[in-house]
Amino acid sequence: MLVCELQTRGNAARRLPLAAASQNVSDELSLVALAKSGHNDAFGELYNRHQRRAYCTALRILRNPQDAEDVVQRAFQRVLVSLQRFREDSAFSTWLTRIVINESLMHLRRRRARQSLHDNSGDAPQGDVGVEIADGRPSPEEILCENERRATVRQAIAELRENLRIVVFHREFQGLSSAETAQLLGLTVSAVKARTFHARRFLRRRLERNLNRTSALSKLRNRKA
């Protein structure tokens, strides 16, 4: 995780000169063309170049190294299967990042579904929860609330349109500026700002509805109690 964080923080300070950046893009397009024509070595080189960044992207969303590794493998499998459909109207790295984000969010949904089944199975041991001694750590209720809040945020992000979701990821998760996000995605700065605004407005409304629903359910439970 630290490697990923250091890599992100150093991005702005390690911008390639324009000529070097152009050469890198040209070289990458050549690798994509070769990979499309069936050269395994070319696809292997694309994997070697982008595997670390893909892993960091998945890890920031999933917060679990093993899950992140699994997602990266699935993402590159999807890339291999879908490579012929890559239109090259955006950078290969941008296309790959979209796939990694989508795979990560799908993995989160599957993980939540498994956790929900486990929680409802009735197999959890029933201990003397009333005799715990306060030790300054978050209570089970506080942990549950925080987990529910994070799950709600991730679910709301998953419901965003893809063009908004990828902007939110780079702005909020990666900590990139509007200019850096625009450069990465091939957009104008004003387009990034507009998409960030619409995404945040959607997320705010979505979270407010969830909060109101949770509050209403809590009041109903209290009345029954």
Explain the overall architecture:
The structure is a single chain. The model is unreliable at 5-22 and 124-135 (pLDDT under 50). The chain is built from 9 helices and no strands. It folds into 2 domains: 1-119, Rna Polymerase Sigma Factor, Chain: A (Orthogonal Bundle), CATH 1.10.1740.10; 141-225, Arc Repressor Mutant, subunit A. It is mainly alpha-helical. It starts with a helix and ends with a helix. Helix 2 (18-36) packs across helix 3 and helix 3 (40-62) crosses helix 4. It is globular and about 65 Å long.
The coarse silhouette is: globular
Q: Nearest-angstrom radius of gyration?
A: 21 Å
CATH H-level superfamily of the largest domain: RNA polymerase sigma factor, region 2, helix turn helix motif
Instruction: Describe the largest sheet.
Output: none
**What is the residue-averaged pLDDT?**
74
CATH architecture of the largest domain: Orthogonal Bundle
Number of strands: 0
- The helix tally amounts to 9
- Any idea of the CATH class of the largest domain? Mainly Alpha
The proportion of residues in beta strands is under 5%
Quote the distance from N terminus to C terminus: 44 Å
Structural class: mainly alpha
* Low-pLDDT windows of residues: 5-22, 124-135
CATH topology of the largest domain: Rna Polymerase Sigma Factor, Chain: A
Write down the domain tally.
Answer: 2
